[in-house]
Predict the structure.
Amino acid sequence: MYERNDRLKALYKELVSTHLREVKDPGLVGFLTVTGVDLAQDRRTLKVFYSILGTDAERERAAAALERAAPYLRELIKKKVSVKTIPNLLFTYDGTPKKASRIDELLNKLEKEKRR
């Protein structure tokens, strides 16, 4: 059986992912993906992990844009979910996809060298 926090995390991830498409901020360029969420035990803070395809400068602009969008997203969530406390959103860059891509690149390079 799922715990309440697990169900809330799944719901919050879906809502944040959906509502991020509605945010019209020039800093949100590139392909942004919500990779996961972590809800604090007291349910007051929701850490949203995201990845973005683009340069480091685009990543920094996206981080600033997400910080600006957090109160707006929180209000949208408040309209959809009836819980006692709507969590504050903290956006955290998730470098895992970039690291995975680099590892894949290195493995492919090793495979090519092995064939020679």
Q: What stands out?
A: Residues 78 and 86 are 6 Å apart (CA to CA).
